[in-house]
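Z., the sequence and structure:
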Amino acid sequence: KSLLGKHASEAIHAARKHFMPGVLTETNTVKILQVVHFSPPYSIGGSELYTRDLARALSAEHEAHLFFTIPESKNEERTLTGQIDGIPYCALQKNYATYDRPFHECDRRVDQAFDRLLDHFRPDMVHFQHLMNLSLRLPGIAKRRGIACCYTLHDFWLVCPGAFLLRPDLSLCA
C-alpha cells in the first residue's frame, strides 16, 4: 500500500470513529466526495495533484468522486461528467473565475450543481481541499444534510486573496 493510501486508510478509520460513530463498520465502503478548485488534466498544481492521488488511493478500498471547476471554458457554461484515472468526476465549466475574492466566493450555480451531486452520489463524507472558484456555502450545504466534512488547508487563500500571504513585491502581508 502506498504511503498516501496508508494515510488515507488511517483518515477513514479516524473519521468513522469521530464523525460517524455507529454508522459505519470497519468493513463498509465509504463514499467520499473530494472537492477541489481545479483538477488534472485541466489544471496541474499541488493541491490538484494531491487530491487526484488521494482519490486514487481511496478508491482502492472506498468509493471516491471529484467535484471541481474548469474556469477556461470559452464562454460555455456547462456541467461535465466523466472519469480521471478511473475516478468519477463532476466539473463545472465557468466562463469566469472568482478566486480573487476569497471572502465573497459564493456562486449559486456551483451550489446547485453541488446539491445535485450530493443527491446523486450520496457521500458519507465530503473532503474539501479548496473552495477557490467554487462557493463558500458548500460546507454548509453538506453539513445541513448531516454529511461528515473535513477541510485540508493547502495555502492561505481563505484569509489572503493571493493565497501565500505575499504582496506582489514578495514582502509579507499582514
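The chain has a mean pLDDT of 82. Strands lie at 31-35, 63-70, 79-84, 87-93, 125-128, 148-151.

Let me know what you think.
H.
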